[in-house]
Design a protein that fits this description.
The chain contains no helices and eleven strands. It is mainly β. Strands 2, 4, 5, 6, 9, 10 and 11 form a seven-stranded mixed beta sheet that branches. Strand 9 and strand 10 form a beta hairpin.
Amino acid sequence: QVQLVESGGGLVQPGGSLTLSCVVSGNILALNVMGWYRQTPGERREWVAGAINGGTPTYADSVKGRFTISRDNAKKIVYLQMSSLKPEDTALYLCNGKSWGGMTYWGKGTLVTVSS
């Protein structure tokens, strides 16, 4: 059974940086794709970044050049490094994992607030 637990959210000023972590319990190598999504009240869940195991990370246009996703399979952690944060980046950030067999897993999220 795979479980995902996010941490690292908080309050940060515009222009600041924050690194989110997603700890994977279970076999991370069974998760072909790891990603980060974000959601604000009343809005659709938005894809932010994705990392295919052994592949090139991909990013939404809104975060390209500011966010970096990485996965450490040995530590079973997926990171999202965020810099040059903007108020519009404020959201609940959720970790997502997709297995080779098509199963999808979600964490409960960590809240990021960008405000002065």
